[in-house]
Amino acid sequence: MSNRRRQRENPLDTWVPKTRLGRMVHEGQVSSIYEIFEEGYRIKEVEIIDVLIPDLRDEVIDINLVQKQTDAGERSRFRAIVAVGNSDGLIGLGAGKAPRVRNAIEKGIRDAKMNVFPIRRGCGSWECGCGEPHTLPFKVTGKSGSVEVTLIPGAKGLGLVAGETARLVLGMAGVKDCYSKSKGATKTATSFSFATFDALKNTMKIIIPKDWAT
């Protein structure tokens, strides 16, 4: 799917915060998304993401027509899986359903923004040792449904040795070099993308020596 960049108006111009965190961001008391992650605040307004991560991009990973049988007959809606990221350590993944493709994508983007998560990057490949954050610091595994994805650090210049869906998610997160192994129903874009997303989130669950000093 094509990557889409939008020229958005400044969200501060029309945004009226409804939560305490929203007011703190609006008033400039919180100026970095990482402050929110460190303090463990829960993001309930998508405008917070728009303000703190203005360079966020979105990518449509998959669009499917889903049908549901109701008392009134068969109901058809589109489901869009969307990834958002800044290619610099932030990644979000979401899903949206609506009778129209455009509305499904918009809902997917909103859901993905509400699920933005930081990841840890580094140079964990024994073949490299350059010290730059081009890959992952260690091997991680993520699961979603029947799909299990394992991401393995790669040397600089390797590229992303992964399926198309995983490459999209990894690229949006800013991972440039990586091996991957997967098992399960990997042809299911929803499970494959969310398993990759889960693996990336797991990079923050392991403490590395660098963290001991902080």
Describe this structure in words.
The protein has 214 residues and is α+β, with helices and mostly antiparallel strands. It has three domains: 46 residues, no CATH class; 62 residues, Double Stranded RNA Binding Domain (2-Layer Sandwich); 68 residues, Ribosomal Protein S5, domain 2, CATH 3.30.230. The protein contains seven helices and nine strands. β3 and β4 form a beta hairpin.
How would you summarize the topology of this molecule?
Blueprint: E1 3-4, H1 20-26, H2 33-39, H3 46-52, E2 57-70, E3 73-85, E4 90-98, H4 101-114, E5 117-118, E6 140-144, E7 147-153, E8 160-161, H5 164-173, E9 178-183, H6 189-201, H7 209-212
Parallel strand pairs: 8-9
Antiparallel strand pairs: 1-2, 2-3, 3-4, 4-5, 6-7, 7-9
Helix pairs in contact: 1-3, 5-6
Describe, in short, the structure shown.
With 214 residues, this protein is of the alpha+beta class. It has three domains: 7-52, no CATH class; 57-118, Double Stranded RNA Binding Domain (2-Layer Sandwich), CATH 3.30.160; 140-207, Ribosomal Protein S5, domain 2, CATH 3.30.230.10. It contains seven helices and nine strands; from the N terminus they run βαααβββαββββαβαα.
